[in-house]
Amino acid sequence: MPASWMMVLASLLFATMGVCVKLASAHYATGEIVFYRGLTGALMMAAFARVNRGTLRTALPSMHFWRSVSGVTALCLWFYALGNLPLATAMTLNYMSSVWMALFLLGGAVMLGGARIDGRLIGAVLLGFAGVALILRPTIEQDQLWHGLIGLLSGMVSATAYLQVTALGRAGEPEYRIVFYFSAGGVVAGLLTTLWTGISPHRSLAGVGLLLAVGVLATVAQMLMTRAYATGRTLVNASLQYLGIAFSFLYGVLLFDDRVTGMALAGMALIVGAGIAATQLRSRAAPDDARQSTLES
Length: 297
Fold this sequence. Notes:
Helices cover 81% and strands 0% of the residues.
């Protein structure tokens, strides 16, 4: 399958996963969903390693630990936002991670001093935050500003996780091992959270199916996206990745009667444009970043 089609399919699977998370959130707490998503992913990656004669042993446990902390935190925040915001809005705010990474690069350049700051990168960051302002403004009237800020924070924490994933990739860790330890971190975090909040009394075949679907869809989408970045063109893949927002918009309208205003649509368009521009500018300076960032989600 061509890389472009793998990216389109991965974007559709991630959007479908978002639907399952939103539906499951009506019956299960965020911690439970994260637990089952992590358990499914860990089992799938363990099986993948066994079939391909790989090993899950690592010489970099501390790097995996900190990557899991940031990645699982971002995942919990995102799942919480998915359960409380229109589907397309939650997806878009999480996709702000590319803009946050550009902002981190600018901050690093300022701290180092003497480094030339790319004005185009500043423009991409400002464009992205203008989009956020347009998206979050309607939520004030709906008393959803808090949930919107949580969604925005999920994108920021995801950006830090991407940087850690990049470091692991450069250290020679294979993709399946990085995903395995991230998933294992989700199991631990989800279990601890569930022990604190309590286990949901809701138990049905449909509920189990939703929890299983979240893990399977996310893991398969991860592998497809990783393969697409490994074989295709970075900018093309990064652009196609934003189809997830379009798929989420359609799902939201058709399944949840989400009302997306013209202002919110304009904000989504600005964030997509800013994300694509930031990805292009970053990939010129660090070509591996875009590929490694696909291991998150």
